Amino acid sequence: MKVTTSLSKAQVEDLPADKQNPEGWHGASRRAVLGVYGLALAISIALWLLAIRAPLNLDETGSYWQICAGIAKIWQRQFLFPSCLAYSYILQFWTRLFGTSEIALRVPSLLAMLGAMYVLHRSAREMFDRESSLLAAVIFCLHPTILFAAIDVRPYALGALSVNAAIYILIRLRYNDSNWLAALFGLSAACIVWFQFLFAVILPFLVVCFFVFKRGERRTAWRQFGVALVAFVLAVLLTVPGLLFLIRTRAMHVFDTAPKLSALAAMFAPGWMLPIFLCFVPIAFLAAMFSNGRGDAQGRAKGWQILLCVSLGPIPVLILYAVSAITPIHIFVTRYCVVSIPGIALCWALLLRRFGSQTRVLFCAALVVFSILSYVNGPFFRQHDVPWKYALQFVERNASADNAPVVMCSGFIESDYLPMPVDSAKTSFLFAPLSYYPLSVPVVPLPRNLNGETALVGSLFLEQASDKHERFLVLVHFGSYDTLAWIEQRASTSYTYRTLWASDGFEVVEFAPRNGPTTQKYRASR
């Protein structure tokens, strides 16, 4: 096996300027600049932690449902609910050691995203100077999609780590003939698929970059590609059962709205980034005028850098958007775009290299300040998406006094395509929030949207409740308001109703029988 241990003169010239001449990095001013970037990076990571204690959202409770029955049930439950098998086993192992609190459930994603940030920094360090690599890491950490995924109890942080690892190994393969490194490249590419099937959109572009990087070494390229392909195929075989299940049930997981162009723009330049960049363009031009051309050689992009940044950043996210906009398959979802954020961060770092060092430092500081203001004033400050905890706690307090049943609409789109569980609503994946925030009262399960199953189950329950003169509650989220209106219309002759609680898109409505003994008993107890 041949391993490259030294760099040729051409390879040395291809290195960033500060790697060619490390002595140029000494000096108090340079240390101050790096200190600013270090502080910016620390603040960026600290923003991840603001919502780490927040209650679980709907999809996060789905991840918990996957593991709550024990390790023996994880494989079986994969075929009841689309989930990442590798992530479920990692989460199960972690919770056995550290418990199942909200913080404990989020720490694996946090650690994975920290690893992803570090690996991206190393990749950018191989491509650019030290300042640009730190700036790329800051941009990556401050992207709203990364802010969300860093503490999300789902596999997207691990997916980001896998993507960044594949990028780093790809860059290292430019001047390395090792079969072991090629095998690691294939394994890291397989890990991308392990944690999200749609992340596979980046795989063809990893292959293209590999062959472009190795275009002068045809025999070595095909040998390493063969090794990487074998490693990839062997590793990806573990995902085949889950992929086949997802294909068979693909109609159940379709989102009902096409993406807007503004959502695509937000992937490339979130609201705070583009205005800052435009403000700094005049500064960059003024700096260039007074620099007499100094720094142009360092800021000039090389072909392989442009290829890697563009093919691994903008192109995958554009493919997701095009498929969602042109076809009924709406797969342009923020969390799926995590696969492109590392490449987009590298694109920004590449673009900003045309600026002088002082301008880039000011840009980084402004970026952090505007990100803090945007996040603190945003809808999810210290709250991780929409939690079900408070609605379920309110229902428990109000229904437990007389064991009143609760009519609950599922939050999952899959509930519109499956029959409602008869005796196991509290253990069904369609009502995963009940696995983490349980109710002691009876639960009547209904689909997310108003359909034939809703009418069948709902009519039967209303008939039985009316015969018993039984008080009941209805819990719906914003996707189920039509169902609530249908229940109010059907029950109006036998029940009076009023809204008891409304927050974050949830409504809890009480239905009390007209002149019923249960109503009098409940009101006396209150």
What do you see in this structure?
The chain has two domains: 9-376, no CATH class; 389-525, Translation Initiation Factor IF3 (2-Layer Sandwich), CATH 3.30.110.10. Helices cover 60% and strands 6% of the residues. The chain has 26 helices and five strands. It has helices spanning 9-13, 17-20, 28-48, 58-68, 74-77, 85-98, 102-127, 130-142, 144-149, 156-172, 179-195, 203-213, 218-236, 240-248, 261-268, 273-290, 296-299, 303-312, 314-326, 341-352, 357-376, 389-399, 433-436, 452-468, 481-491, 517-525, and strands at residues 406-409, 443-446, 472-476, 495-503, 506-513. A five-stranded mixed beta sheet has the order 2-1-3-5-4, sandwiched between helices. Helix 7 packs parallel to helix 10 (156-172) and helix 10 packs antiparallel against helix 11 (179-195). The termini are far apart. Mean pLDDT is 84; it is low at 1-10, 20-25, 292-297 and 518-526.
